[in-house]
Amino acid sequence: MRWPLALLVLIGCQNGDDGPTTRVLALAGELPAEAGAVVISHAADGTLIDQQVTDGSGHALLQTAPGALVTVIYRRDAIQVVTSPALATGELVIHGPVPAKAPIIAAALALTAPAIDADELSADLGCATVHLAQFPDTIDVAAACLGTDSKLDVLVRATVGIAPETLAGYYAARVPVVDGVGMLDIPTWESAPTVIPVTANDLGAVIELDEISDGFVHATPPGTTQLNAWTGLVADASRVRAQVGFTTAAQTTTAYIAGLPDSVAFPATAFLPAATTRVALHDRAKLAFSWDALAIGDVVDFHAIWMPGTQVILWDVVLPPDASAVAFPQLDPDLAAILAPPVGDVVLNTDLRAIDGPDTTDFASVQAAGLWVDQGASSTIVPPPETGLVSETNVGGFDD
User: Fold this and answer.
1) What is the pLDDT of residue 6?
2) One domain for residues 362 and 308
């Protein structure tokens, strides 16, 4: 979606008073600037101080005050709102969601394979999964699926049954694309995976392995004593996620690994302590929340999601571990109409988590390294490491 031009002009001229200022840099993912993003400074209770719009380089300069927060609004199919304390010095860098790319067809992939007894055939390109009618088959490949080179990392699966499905066979390969065409001739179906032993799982976590090929993620079936990787898939990196508990209250540690690991281990010391607090909602119209401070990890991320009409709103508030309350910024009528609070029958979901990363030591170092809020509640918040553990503990829901 796009803001109306008149609204952008209004937002960009809110406050010309002298006083303390804070600089913000809004990025779309790792590097591209987020031009035209609405940026707000406000008090902890939501009272508006200033509103601006980022320039072509993604920068905005805001009037501020002691204890003020900064909020950046990313316009996507789901609107991502990011809030964090203003910086007295330096620049607050926020890595927000990457906008969807136009589905430009850049190549074709031709597939052939031996006959196999299966109810479902699919080709996973990392960026998309395409259902196949039969073999041979040819599918279109979007430009976004080519990644950084002219090769495709393809995982073809044949399954039997529905919910649950059983794997009848698979084949994975890195396929070169020449003159806009990639060709994958499957000589024989694979049935045995590459086994990766779990040498320690002290808390009985459910463990999942993501193989990352040229930036694209290929998930594998979860396990507790061993993991099964896709034989033939070229994994430039791996992400192994171990979770104890349920989605709404869990201890989760993710190991970032170069290549494919020979084994993985998750001792009890790899996890943050279980969270014991709950989130309380005090005012739906003002979106005011509080909780007992988690006081663990490098940073706290409060995440809320609601859906007024057909628009999905995601709000992440990145705070120091001793924080215990937050309120949504008070918006002018035009912005408030777009980001309507979840009043009435609108469903509101929340999640509160403490996060600890290998390359940060406290909240100041997290802010200095930039905030990574690009996938809602699954974002790392701390800088995603090349290698090392990101540990978190969370609680969901609220006492109304």
Assistant:
1) 41
2) yes
Q: Which one, of 381, 391, 400, lies nearest residue 279 by Cα?
A: 400
> Of 122, 154, 185, which residue is a domain's last?
185
**By C-alpha distance, which of 274, 394, 276, 286 is closest to 348?**
286
213-249 burial, b at 16+ Cβ within 10 Å, e below that, comes to bbebebebeebeeebbbbeebebebbbbbbbbbeeeb
Evaluate whether residue 334 is within a structural domain: yes
- Asked whether residue 397 is assigned to any structural domain, the reply reads no
Co-location of 200 and 283 in the same domain: no
> Would you give the distance in Å from CA 171 to the centre of its chain?
28
Residues 218 and 161 in one domain: no
Q: What is the pTM of this model?
A: 0.90
Residue 280's CB is within 10 A of a number of other CB atoms, namely: 14
Cα(first)–Cα(last) distance of the chain, in Å? 32
User: What is the distance between the alpha carbons of residues 146 and 58, in angstroms, rounded to a whole number?
Assistant: 27
Q: From CA 62, how far away is CA 120, in angstroms rounded?
A: 54
Q: Is residue 308 part of a domain?
A: yes
Question: Is the pLDDT confidence value at 5 over 60?
Answer: no
- Asked if residue 112 and residue 93 are part of one domain, the reply reads no
Strand bridging mode 249-258 / 237-246: antiparallel
Estimate the share of the chain in helix, then strand, then coil, as percent rounded to the nearest 5: 10, 50, 45
* Within a domain: 385: no
Domain end among 185, 216, 245: 185
| pLDDT confidence bin for 168, thresholds 50/70/90 | very high
Helices (H) and strands (E) in the chain, counts: 3, 30
pLDDT digits (tens, 9 = 90+) for 237-251: 999 999 999 988 999
* Residue 345 CB-half CA count within 13 A: 1
Same domain, 294 and 316: yes
Burial of residue 201 (number of CB atoms within 10 Å: 0-12, 13-18, 19+): buried
Indicate the pLDDT class of residue 141, thresholds 50, 70 and 90. Answer: very high
Please report the sign of the dihedral spanned by the C-alpha atoms of residue 352, residue 354, residue 358, residue 360: positive
Shared domain for 233 and 265, answered yes or no, is: yes
Assess contact for 193 and 171: CB atoms under 8 A. no
Q: Could you tell me the residue range of the domain that residue 140 belongs to?
A: 105-185
pLDDT, mean of residues 347-366: 96
Residue 306 has pLDDT above 60, yes or no: yes
